[in-house]
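Task 17 of the worksheet. Students: predict the tertiary structure of the chain below and write it out as structure tokens. Keep your answer in the requested format; marks are given for formatting as well as content.
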Amino acid sequence: MKLNRPRGTRDFLPGENAKRWYAESALRRVAECWGYSEIKTPTFEHVELFTIKSGEGILGEIYNFRDKGDREVALRPELTAPVMRLYVEELQKAPKPLRFYYCENCFRYENPQKGRFREFWQFGVEAIGSARPEADAEVIALAVEMLGSLGITGDLHVGHLGIIRHLLRELGSEQQSRILRLVDKKDDKGLESYLNDINAGDSLSASLFHLVGLRGGTAIDEARSIVGDIEAIAQLDSILKLLDAYGVEYTVDFGIARGLDYYTGMVFEIYGENLGAQNQVCGGGSYRLAHLFGGEDIPSTGYAIGFDRVMEILDVSIPKRLTAAVIYFEDTRTEAIQVARKLRKHVPAYLDIMGRKFKDQLSFASASGAAYAVIVGKTELDEGKLTLKNMLTKEQEKLTLEQVIERITAASQQV
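Model answer:
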């Protein structure tokens, strides 16, 4: 019986995996340079961690099950909630702010399509403990620099939910949440229908559609004419001035809602090219979530980069690793093992484990892309040397082990 991988999952062959590791390493370097530290959380959590935040409706979108102790658990569908659970459980007394990053796989039971899988990866950042514009601006600028480290120049849009929530302040929290989800989905017809259903009134409906349609340089002034000179506008204005100081290009966009109840203030999204309809590569904002998990009500700001979508548009050529094949004869196997052990302290090296003859070992080394063959023969050993063969030029020479290491190491540094 032939078994295939589950739908919505992928295998990564060495070439693709090398590319993903390159990208992840670049993002890690940027996060570390900005003072963020890596954390890890469990692959599965108690299902309540996600239903408390998103409601029972999320059960249709996640992998949840009962374990052998009859506890209902779920594979994590995202990482913000697990990080905040970790904070509440372990770090509430730690000095603020806390700066964390993570890169982990997540799971959602949805219809697989281009750029969307049931198992996917997120690279995310959380800054916990500050409600100031400096925190929001830092997180946005960090996201831009992370993508820039991969040569990706995204289209950054920034908004503020406090402005929309102020406009909707006379409505109930459930009604506000429903409206924000419709705004997030850009479902104008659905939004119009829902506003009619709840008798929102022509004035509120017109103001809302006007507000969420505002973009660009005059958006803040126009928003001020709709809602007045409220604190949320002053906050956004402060954030934008700081983004200017960071040298970050952006578009003010009041149509960004993110659609999740825990977002409270600034929100942003970054869009990439050549991704079709699913072109968002990063999204986040400021939120309050810890109190839902039994902690203090503390402000946080974070985002998640859609790592799989980034990989679709990442244009980078990963140099192939320079490897050495240690070639031996039946009577030099032991010595070859010792040579390989010493080589591996400096360069990747491997030995034949198939019982091949000398010529077949050389043929395999050539076929597998080894840059060098290090031949361990009796004659060479008697002379205290090895034969180093360049598999590309076919040139070979006798050298000491130290000279072989020096030669291969120098070549690897030029790759």
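Marker's comment: The chain has a mean pLDDT of 92. The two ends are 44 Å apart (CA to CA).
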